Amino acid sequence: MSLEVNIKKKFRDFNLDVSFQTNGEYLGILGASGSGKSLTLKCIAGVETPDEGKIVLNKRVLYDSQNNINIIPQSRNIGYMFQNYALFPNMTAEENIGVGLKLSKKEKRIKVKELLNLFRLEDMGHKYPAQLSGGQQQRVALARIIAYEPDVLLLDEPFSALDSRLKSQLHTDFFDMLKLYKGEVLIVTHSKEEVYRFSENLALIENGTITGFGKTKEIFEHPKSLSEAKMIGCKNISTCEILSDNKILCRDWGLVLETESIPLNCKYIGIPSGNFEIVNEPGINTIECKLVNVIEEINEYTILFKNNKGNENSLLYFNINKETWDKKKSQDILYLKINDFYLLQ
Amino acid sequence: MDWSPMLISLKTASVSMVITFFLGIYAAKLVVGMKSDKARIFIDGILTLPLVLPPTVVGFFILIIFGVKRPVGRFLLDFLSVKIVFSWTATVIAAVIVSFPLMYRSARGALEQVDKNLIMAGRTLGMSERGIFWRVMMPLALPGIASGGVLAFARALGEFGATAMVAGNIANKTRTLPLAIYAEVAAGNMEDSYGYVALVVIISFIVLSLMNYFTIKGSKYTDKDVSK
How many A-B residue pairs are in contact by the CB < 8 A criterion? Predict the structure, then answer.
């Protein structure tokens, strides 16, 4: 299973220019809204046409602007789950699931029944989409696509239409059901949590271009570029200057960090907000803090501080669980040791 | 009171509504599916024109096309022995042309309001374009289309100007309610026109109530209580 995408599409104030290749594992496409992720999926499914480029699925050319190939969506055999599920409101769950099946009436009835059972919708067959809960609608949408046995499954923000209260339960349910499908899956989302949980591979998309691509876990553990660090939610990012083999200056914080093997193309430093440790004395990679604010969150505190020794005004963020922060000795000076940081291109 | 104008009016409006209904949907489908914006604007303009033109101008064009001295009228007369002008058929033609834009525009609006994602979903699920139109777009647009049909009926019922020009005012043949009212008032028989006026008002009101009923019924798929 492989999907090769290399497409360009111009709009008045937006240019889509993406290229990537999948290898059969789940691929997550992470990006802010308006970054072109849904458009990319629509071009793959064939419901939007790119200006130029090439799309190849399992060696079958779906779109090739040079050779004037543009297979109609009906013949692409691609499953597309729309953001709002796009269930036909005038059809019952059963009718929705059976809508694309080219089978005899009897075979269709058997297949639809099988899918209703598989997706725990036994009693929902005769209900209209408006009578179903969000989770049920999602399952009908997935059943409808899987009934059609597509070569690849495209999921466009599968959870954005759902109540956030129900999301974590539905995440688990949904991905159990997704395992019923044995093909390739592309999932588009703006949620870091969703991609981290569900896709082995990750593509980052920003303003219509792919700005990062790799193994999800590696990108989250060690982002290599500024956009990767931003996308995974790293709040402390500074420009830097390499001082020597093992010393680097973070300009925004007026802070010198020591580490081994600094790559020459390192332009930014990122410090994950959870990677600080409260220590009692100054030392290597330790900041003497000037506290600015303590914000109480649900499960933790967000500590906003500055480097007391630096003249710069940029704030740093530090997240700490409540117990640890409350337990710390009220000392005059707060020292924070940086355990890990990212060297970014 | 002579009931023939009412019967002629109802017959004309009913027949013209059936014709307009299908023509309007077909035209709406064509225009909605057009890829070029320029072509769409042009065609839409032509199809909507009878709505804003004075009915006499519409009548003028009908005369130009179907007049017995014109090619089409000549052909119909010579080969099929059908004379359109000043016949009941002319009242239907006038009613169809004048009510067509209402049907077409209602149908177009209703079809365009169908969620584009549903159409795209239909395509990715392998449904043919025809299947998508009949099984998804039409059912969802039906309330709007039905109210367009009712509106077209009401407009056909009230048609006066074009009818007077192409069908005349022949009692028991082409004299519809609006023409009967005009004829009575013109002859100075105000009292005799009261019945006709009342009939037109009542029928039109019933028809408009029907239209509102269709519009309310239109929310059928969205207002259902969500069972938890």
Answer: 78
Strands lying side by side in the sheet with A236-244: A255-258, A247-250, A236-244, A268-271, A342-344
- On whether the CB atoms of residues A158 and A123 are closer than 8 A, the answer is no
Cα dihedral B90, B93, B98, B103 sign: positive
Whole-number pLDDT of residue B120 = 94
Q: Of A82, A91, A131, which has the smallest distance from its Cβ to B226's Cβ?
A: A131
Q: Is the pLDDT of residue B43 over 80?
A: yes
Please report residues of B whose CB lies closer than 8 A to that of A132. Answer: 226-227
Nearest CB among B124, B128, B226 relative to A79 is that of: B124
CATH topology assigned to domain B4-220: MetI-like fold (1.10.3720)
For residue A78, the cross-strand partners are: A152
Residue A231, min C-alpha distance to chain B (Å): 28
In the predicted model, is pLDDT for residue B225 greater than 60?
no
CA distance B64 to B100: 19
- Cβ within 8 Å, pair B120-A144: no
Domain residue spans of chain B? 4-220
Task: Classify the complex by whether its ipTM is higher than 0.85, answering yes or no.
Answer: no
Distance in angstroms (rounded) separating the CA atoms of residues A254 and A287: 10
User: What confidence category does residue A255 fall into, taking pLDDT thresholds of 50, 70 and 90?
Assistant: confident
Residue A337 is predicted with a pLDDT of: 87
Residue A168 has pLDDT above 70, yes or no: yes
Q: Chain A: give the shortest CA distance to residue B206, in Å.
A: 28
Of A80, A128, A129, the CB nearest to B124: A80
Per CB-CB distance under 8 Å, the chain B contacts of A145 are: 125
- Closest by Cα among A79, A86, A7 to A40: A7
Q: For the residues A76-80, what does the mean pLDDT come to?
A: 93
